[in-house]
Write a structure and sequence with these properties.
This protein is an alpha+beta fold and 229 residues long. It has 2 domains: 109 residues; 88 residues, no CATH class. It has 10 helices and 4 strands, in the order αααββββααααααα. β2 and β3 form a beta hairpin. The radius of gyration is 20 Å and the shape is globular.
Length: 229
Amino acid sequence: MYHDCRIPAERLDLLQPGAAPGWLVPWLSTDAASSAGSHVQARRDRHGCKSGSIRLYLGRTSPLEVRGRPRGRLRLHADRFYQAMTPDLFAHDMDPSELATRAPDLAAHAERAVEQTHRSFLDGEAVVHAGLMRHYGPLARGEEPWLAWAAWQVAFHVARFRSLLAEHPNWFSEVLGDLARDKACVGLLGRANLPDLDGSPEPTNVIAAPDPRHEWLDAWRRVLGEETA
């Protein structure tokens, strides 16, 4: 992902128990949330979101975003399609205390969004992405069973790309190479030097995920050794 996910600590604290949007984390465990591939992402950009935000996602679309505003206030944001479901939620800045009182309305808004979001945003690639974000995103807990699940996903994609490259040897340089160069031209890849994107490379299994445990390396070797043996 090329989005800037570095947000202030006070924004990330919105996910803590007892914070203003305290309904959100429990809601993610509901059947409705799971069926829609719901997860949370942190975002920051120069266009209306300089102070960082917490976004609720349903698959590949976001029905609700909590943005930081000056003087400690917050503002809810979403695309027009979702704002039209509950217009008064998006009308003005709120203090955290006011946002907390709107918890029932926010949960109801999320439920409506699940019901009315088109399945094209919730199926296919969105399933894999949502699973990875739920277990390696801001609310990740480093659970080993999901490391094994991710290993199988990576192995599947490697096999898929090997088959694709066997059928179309120039696919990597012509498609991914051009995409990487375009992103570099507009600054999305920072100052990193692009590797050689010509030819037909050999796909490799790689998993990168946060794990705060001191013994994480031994734990990963134990799980991945069992899954890849």
